[in-house]
């Protein structure tokens, strides 16, 4: 049974509950930390040392990439190197998986508080951990941390964390969607000393490798992590010898202080207020069909942020993360939005963020919650939540800060993990992370980026098809762009994702161990845009693909392929794929920004001409009428859009007594249709097109909107689902200008949930 959040004596210790370090850190006196720093460093020396540290960390990452053997690391770059202070605060983070930012920090702080006396910390040591209740987001992400000594003092730490192909558990690839608690998950190892004064302990290494179905791959990747740390330790040691420990420490301190000043200055340009958002997951484990809610709220006071997860459902099934995941997801979204120009020097930014987590919840679970699938599900949900909330907050800022906003991330890492044996009888696990192709959401400035990757792993790459065919017994039929449509539509549309199909090849078949098939969209578009795509996985048995090959045809349409289509669940069991099977799975089109009916009609026509949007979607989604040659029929489009706006209002519930701001009143645009205006001595939310007064800024602007609600499946055929699936009853709520019918905001709601007050500001002077 989960430990009750109210259980007496339970602390944030990394054992019964996620680890939150004490302040100040309680380090035993047996450990000496280097804390002295030069009072002044000349500008030239400062820049040389600063860039030397940055480049050491970048070389650390490049070493990992060259030495690792698993595609998920050497190609996808699902890893992160860092340089940290003597107490484990991040100085430099690499351009790889950003939510690992605090994994290493938390792990090192836990080691200092819990391992410093026994077995101790000495030169040449390295600690390893994959414990989610200490610092790892989930068990495949193993931290390897090494201290850098000056004499008898720990000067700093270097560390990396990387995703291993399989570390045990009930499911190949270690994303155990069937787990109901951690005892069905892969083993979680609290920090242990794997390298003792420069010597690897074979007993502990074998213990770690014994859990894996592919121990050779894990062994090579673990040794790569150790070797990369050695490279970084050696280079920092030489830097200390050249410039002196006190000088280098002064540079590190100044880097942290500069990052803190930068974020404080930017936060000062955002009004104090509270912003909130929630998202849903479907199915907590295999066989489940319920929906579950995550919520993140940000409160800004002065130059500080306070983040909580109140409103999140209690922990259950396998869709949980501990505190490390919750904090890491938010920090990744914040730094990508607000301080990306700091180039990984984020430790000072973190000083201004204060977490107030509710334990025992899906996003801050207590032991023994199952967390292993988090790398495909919950972490991406929380990153998307955080980026949505931060986008709302930045929209209220001064223009130069508002322009930093990025749209929400995908709600899951759409992927497929397969496994089995090759024709030679060798076991394989294929972690297909091609969704690294990605797509980026639209922003206030323009369309999203087609195939733009993900902002939370800037250096991530997808595999070439030929690489995957070389590595695993499968043959790809196609990989191409997802068509546009209702999914991702907006005044600015979201970037487009991809879909791909393959068959077993050169082997007896395989198992599709982990896949994603959703029944409703999870991410709404910003300021009235449409949701992003619904991810799908499809499988047919007894296909006629090989007969098509004999006829010289490579099938390109999954619906036209013969065979019996399998029933698929959101978090279903492993699906066996014989040599006559074929599967197709998708990434996602990212969300748009603003009301689709406000999109420039020429942009719609250009998308149709480029093949990025089906011709029928121009009218159906955007209300744009095209002539036979593809040109915009401007009068017909104006008439069509006016009718669609009237239809919205006719179907909506419109509040009584709508008031409007005078034409002379200056509007301060927040995003899309939502703006601020000073009226009768107070600031109000107001609509941009109809100037309808919605509510004072301290209240809920949604109370003054016209409201249109329907099942989300009715938004377009892109969101259709079967009546037995969870998404069939999920609702889509549109908040409209009560004067013009323009969309202000949208909300996805499960049955029984009340609308959310997502934005409230302190009264402005």
Secondary-structure blueprint:
Layout (H helix, E strand, L loop, with lengths): L31 E2 L9 H25 L3 H4 L4 E7 L4 E4 L7 H14 L1 H5 L5 E4 L11 E10 L2 E11 L28 E5 L2 E2 L1 H8 L5 H29 L1 H23 L5 E10 L8 E11 L2 E5 L14 H16 L8 H4 L2 E3 L22 H18 L3 H4 L13 E6 L5 E6 L32 H7 L2 E8 L16 E7 L4 E6 L22 E5 L3 H6 L13 E2 L9 E4 L3 E5 L14 H9 L5 H8 L11 H18 L15 E5 L2 E6 L2 E6 L5 E4 L9 E6 L19 E6 L6 E7 L9 E3 L4
Parallel strand pairs: 1-6, 11-12
Antiparallel strand pairs: 2-3, 2-6, 4-5, 4-7, 5-6, 7-8, 9-10, 9-29, 10-11, 13-14, 13-17, 15-16, 16-21, 17-20, 18-19, 18-21, 22-23, 23-24, 24-25, 26-27, 27-28
Question: Keywords, please?
Answer:
disordered N terminus; alpha+beta; 16 helices; 765 residues; single chain; five-stranded mixed sheet
């Amino acid at each position: 049974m989960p430990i009750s959040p109210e259980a007496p004596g339970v602390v944030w210790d990394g054992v019964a509950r996620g680890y939150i370090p004490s302040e100040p850190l309680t380090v035993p006196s047996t450990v000496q930390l280097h804390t002295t720093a030069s009072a002044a460093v000349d500008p030239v020396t400062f820049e040389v040392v600063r860039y030397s540290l940055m480049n050491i960390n970048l070389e650390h990452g490049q070493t990992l990439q060259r030495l690792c053997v698993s595609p998920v690391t050497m190609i996808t770059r699902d890893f992160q190197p860092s340089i940290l202070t003597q107490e484990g605060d991040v100085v430099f983070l690499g351009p790889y998986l950003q939510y690992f930012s605090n994994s290493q920090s938390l792990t090192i702080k836990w080691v200092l508080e819990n391992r410093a006396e026994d077995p101790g910390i000495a030169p040449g040591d390295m600690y390893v951990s994959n414990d989610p209740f200490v610092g790892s987001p989930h068990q495949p992400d193993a931290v390897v941390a090494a201290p850098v000594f000056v004499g008898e003092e720990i000067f700093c730490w270097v560390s990396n964390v990387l995703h291993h192909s399989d570390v045990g558990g009930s499911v190949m690839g270690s994303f155990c969607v069937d787990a109901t608690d951690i005892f069905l998950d892969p083993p979680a190892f609290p920090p242990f000393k794997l390298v003792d004064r420069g010597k690897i302990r074979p007993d502990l290494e074998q213990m770690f490798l014994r859990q894996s179905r592919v121990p050779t791959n894990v062994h090579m990747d673990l040794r790569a992590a150790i070797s990369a740390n050695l490279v970084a330790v050696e280079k920092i040691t030489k830097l200390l010898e050249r410039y002196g420990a006190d000088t280098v420490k002064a540079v590190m301190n100044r880097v942290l202080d500069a990052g803190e000043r930068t974020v404080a200055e930017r936060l000062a340009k955002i009004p104090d207020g509270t912003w909130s958002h929630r998202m849903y997951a479907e199915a907590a484990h295999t066989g489940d069909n319920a929906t579950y809610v995550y919520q993140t709220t940000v409160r800004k006071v002065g130059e500080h942020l306070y983040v909580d997860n109140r409103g999140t459902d209690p922990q259950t099934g396998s869709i949980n993360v501990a505190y490390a995941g919750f904090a890491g997801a938010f920090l990744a979204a914040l730094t990508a939005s607000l301080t990306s120009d700091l180039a990984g020097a984020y430790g000072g930014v973190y000083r201004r963020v204060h977490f107030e987590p509710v334990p025992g919840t899906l996003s801050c679970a207590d032991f023994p919650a199952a967390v292993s699938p988090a790398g495909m599900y919950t972490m991406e949900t929380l990153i998307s939540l955080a980026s949505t909330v931060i986008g709302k907050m930045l929209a209220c800022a001064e223009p130069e800060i508002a322009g930093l906003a990025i749209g929400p991330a995908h709600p899951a890492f759409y992927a497929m993990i397969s496994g089995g044996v090759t024709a030679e009888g060798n076991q394989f696990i294929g972690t297909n992370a091609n969704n690294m192709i990605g797509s980026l959401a639209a922003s206030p400035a323009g369309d999203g980026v087609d195939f733009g990757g993900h902002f939370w792993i800037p250096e991530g790459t997808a595999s070439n098809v030929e690489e995957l065919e070389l590595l695993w017994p499968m043959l790809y039929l196609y990989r191409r762009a997802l068509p546009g449509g209702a999914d991702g539509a907006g005044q600015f549309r979201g970037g487009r994702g991809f879909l791909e199909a393959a068959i077993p090849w050169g082997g007896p078949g395989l198992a599709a161990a982990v896949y994603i098939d959703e029944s409703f969209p999870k991410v709404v578009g910003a300021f009235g845009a449409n949701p992003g795509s619904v991810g799908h996985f499809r499988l047919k048995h007894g296909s006629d693909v090989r007969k098509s090959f004999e006829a010289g045809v490579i099938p390109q349409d999954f619906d036209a392929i013969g065979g019996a289509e399998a029933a698929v669940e959101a978090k279903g069991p492993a699906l066996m794929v014989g040599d006559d099977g074929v599967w197709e799975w998708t990434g996602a089109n990212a969300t748009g920004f603003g009301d689709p009916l406000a999109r420039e009609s020429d942009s719609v026509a250009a998308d149709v001409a480029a093949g990025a949007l089906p011709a029928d979607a121009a009218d159906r989604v955007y209300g744009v009428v095209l002539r036979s040659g593809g040109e915009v029929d401007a009068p017909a489009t104006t008439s069509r859009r006016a009718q669609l706006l009237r239809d919205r209002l006719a179907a909506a519930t419109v509040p009584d007594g709508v008031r409007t701001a005078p034409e002379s009143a200056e509007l301060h645009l927040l995003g899309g249709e939502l703006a601020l205006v000073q009226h009768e001595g107070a600031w109000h939310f107001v609509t941009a097109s109809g100037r309808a007064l919605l509510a004072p800024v301290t209240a809920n602007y949604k109370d003054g909107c016209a409201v249109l609600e329907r099942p989300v499946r009715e938004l377009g055929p892109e969101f259709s689902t079967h009546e037995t699936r969870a998404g069939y009853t999920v609702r889509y709520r549109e908040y409209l200008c009560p004067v013009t019918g323009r969309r202000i905001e949208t909300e996805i709601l499960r049955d029984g949930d009340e609308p959310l007050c997502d934005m409230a500001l302190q009264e402005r002077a």
